[in-house]
Hints:
Blueprint: H1 2-12, E1 17-18, E2 21-22, H2 27-36, E3 40-45, E4 48-55, E5 58-68, E6 73-80, H3 87-105, E7 110-115, H4 125-133, E8 137-145, E9 148-157, E10 162-171, H5 172-185
Amino acid sequence: LMVLISSSFAQSSEHLKFKGVPIDGTLNEYVSKMKQAGFVLEGTEDGVALLSGEFAGYSDCVVGVKTLQKLNLVHEIVVLFPSQDKWAGLSYDYERLKTMLTKKYGEPDKCMEKFNAPSYMIEEKKEKMCQVRMNNCKYHSIFNTDNGSITLMISNEGYDNSCRVKLFYTDKINSEIFDNAAMEDL
């Protein structure tokens, strides 16, 4: 019984990993590890570092490393894959990454893949891309692990209307610390 309890505790006390690096530590510490993994620091602002590099076979990815500024503790990594201007490319990226994540983590715990538009409006690929740009595309898959969650989604970036796949790695331990610190503000 003691072995079961200690192994269960050890499993839940580990951090989620991104590129083999535990999502933990200060922003500078984590950025240093990402540089060693081949990423280039593009800038840091308001507790978020932006890096660029190759990820999962895609070049020109942007990686955001997020912290709660007052704690300076990394809790989430966001990967922005290259933007796409056609549904075929966008859906290919999503399905390819979803297949790889499923092989690694098992079937997603939650999955929604639909458009919030009448079906006659989305029969053609061109119309599907239009719906993505209007934020009527709800494509996301969530993979929960003992150490955190990984969320894959199709997104339209409002500031430049670029459509892309995004991937979020959220560490369970540090997100709980983040949430507790945020609740103190309420």
